[in-house]
Input
Amino acid sequence: MNPNPLLKVENVSVRFGGLIAVNQVSFDVHQGELLGLIGPNGAGKTTMLRAITGVVHATEGEVYLSGAPLVGLPIERRIRQGMSLSQQLVKPLRNMSLLENVALAAGSHKTASPLRALTHVSNQAELALGMQMLEKVGIADRANQMPGTQPLGILKRLELARALALKPQLFLLDEPLAGLNSSEARALANTIADIHQGGMTVVLIEHNLSEVMRLCQRLVVLDNGKKIGDGVPREVMGDPVVQAAYLGGDTLASDQSNQSKEAQS
Output
């Protein structure tokens, strides 16, 4: 493994007024990793992801991508330096086909300035790349269909394809399995695994623990904005501190006790 991380998060804090959403969090992501960023609701996971992408500003600390500092850069500059985000809430352009949605993302470099947009009139390369991305996520057969006619599982795959069309070094996924049934979630998790095995570095926020444990090589756990775990999934999830925070250790123990009493009665 390359000793220099692709992504380095160093003592990042995010404050909203008097609320500390992320508190002095540090972790690295190395080239080729699939890292799970997990924790209970309100732990600060999405805020951490937004601090990495620049959607929210880090109050303290630094974020580096391939050694280059990102804090202070606008979102579009960070994306152009090699990251993309697949968001939990999918919002495609409804008046464009699935293929056109992905092609638009693929051509984002052409619209960096009005002059550059005027000098590029052909979209054939973007349409070709868009079709490749739709094939990668398994929905190329729906390329010419409209988003408004698609179920959630297809729209989730469209969101992956749009993010991949940016050709990122680092792929950030915010709860891609949310809202899917178990078979849909497993199928989409398999697609994410295929994308990772193709060489993509992935950071995954996800509440579906069974799929997290199946997919991820390493976990970083947040609770109340602080990092409480970092390591191999089974070791991290076996930590009593993580169990208490993420799984509700006291609640689980109480539930198990109640089940035992019911079985005895």
